[in-house]
Amino acid sequence: MNRRTLLKAGGLALCHVGLAEWAPVLASPVHALSAARQTLALTPVHVSWDRVIRTTVGLRPHRDSGFVLRAEKQGDRLLVHNYGHGGAGMSLAWGTGAIAADMTLAQESRRAAVIGCGAVGLAAARQLQRRGFDVVIYTATVPPDTTSNMSMASFTPASGLIAPEQRTPEWDAQFHEAATTSAEALEALVGSEYGVSWIDHFQATDRPPPPDDEQPDGPLPAFLTTQRSREILGPGEHPFPTRYVVRTSSLRIEPSTYLEALVRDVVQFGGRIVIRQFDTPADVMALAEPVIVNCTGLGSHALFGDEELVPVKGQLTLLSPQEGVTYRAGRRSSARASGSPDVTAVGMMPRRDGIVLGNTQERGVWSLDVNEEARQRIVTNAMRFFRATPPR
Ligand SMILES: Cc1cc2nc3c(=O)[nH]c(=O)nc-3n(C[C@H](O)[C@H](O)[C@H](O)COP(=O)(O)OP(=O)(O)OC[C@H]3O[C@@H](n4cnc5c(N)ncnc54)[C@H](O)[C@@H]3O)c2cc1C
Predict the structure, then answer these.
(1) How many CB atoms lie within 10 A of CB 392?
(2) CA angle, 219 as apex, 102 and 332 as ends, to 5°?
(3) d(CA 7, CA 1)
(4) pLDDT tens, residue by residue, 106-116
(5) What is the structure's pLDDT at 345?
(6) Of 151, 153, 157, 315, which cross-links 91 as Cys (Cβ 3.0–4.6 Å)?
(7) Cα–Cα distance between 312 and 304 in angstroms, integer?
(8) Domains of the chain
(9) What is the whole-number distance in angstroms between the Cα of residue 272 and the centre of ligand 1?
(10) Residue with CA nearest ligand 1 atom 31
(11) What are 14-30's pLDDT values in tens digits?
(12) Which atom of ligand 1 is nearest to the CA of 302?
């Protein structure tokens, strides 16, 4: 694998890659025995309180029955709803935007209003423009002041999206189409201009990971699971403090770069952005455009009275950027089922604006205040994880 740096244990090589925390382990006599199998060398993340630069909070727009993607004819106008993407809006926006745009094609007019300027509204606007529409985005806020900017964000199209018992064949079909279209669209945007890239993801675990074909599939088509390029590394083959790690390859999105690039594209293709708050559906339907696409995310709770929409509060803490950290790593919660505070879960993703640690899921919490207990736990867990030594 050329994207993976392999290195035999040894002092000289360790100095070269700067493995300050993990070096003593790699250099130990016991570890040297496993050198024949080669140990994956990764720059460890330096986690300390003086490297914390900020904590961000966002409210995921969750519905237990999944996103809303449907058209309503109101006289000679068409209102298309496209909201409620939970923890997957950054992943699914191009796909649900394409489906929403296709729903408008029977309309004679090629003038459209998009309400909302997060990831979902911006991608819907671009999909409408690609189909020949003149688009105006009306929105209360623009990037960087959207939930989308507070996202982790990676391609996780099935994350926190729907309660399993509420899935229907119709919803699954819409979801499969949206996920497939989105994956293709994001893959085509890979590069620094849009802030989209492939990254190696290491999931640490003490349990022997099941082979590929035993992976739970959830609502996701197999070819879109994050199991791409899956590889299992055992004791002695990796520097993480668990017996195994599962390496996969996943798509990373840098929200600030990505959303600014989409704003620029919408404007470049003749779109306009108007700052405006809507308080009632009548306000929305009073717009001049005959086609209206509602991409207000959690805003649809108040604006369209969708009581099923609930916030799932998510919090991230960023460390200052660190040279050489070019992989993503984490360990799943072992305490989620018991409801007790989780002292094991870790999530780390490097971005241009910092090393992101997180994240949290607090259902039904509308507050944008930082949860200090969660902040302490996330940073402390990461400290333990990146300072610990691998089992021998
Ligand atoms: C911590 C965290 C981590 C996440 N990680 C991921 C991830 O890894 N992958 C992923 O795919 N997703 C992730 N998500 C979820 C993702 O961020 C959301 O699904 C996505 O941002 C929703 O996008 P949106 O455009 O629908 O909403 P928003 O970004 O909230 O945009 C809504 C827009 O509508 C406007 N608006 C709302 N109400 C009104 C109104 N009444 N009048 C006028 N304008 C209005 C707002 O001003 C805003 O411009 C994460 C979220 C959080 C918080």
Answers:
(1) 11
(2) 125
(3) 13
(4) 999 999 999 99
(5) 87
(6) 157
(7) 19
(8) 1-41 (no CATH), 63-191+254-310 (3.40.50.720)
(9) 20
(10) 118
(11) 333 233 334 333 333 33
(12) 41
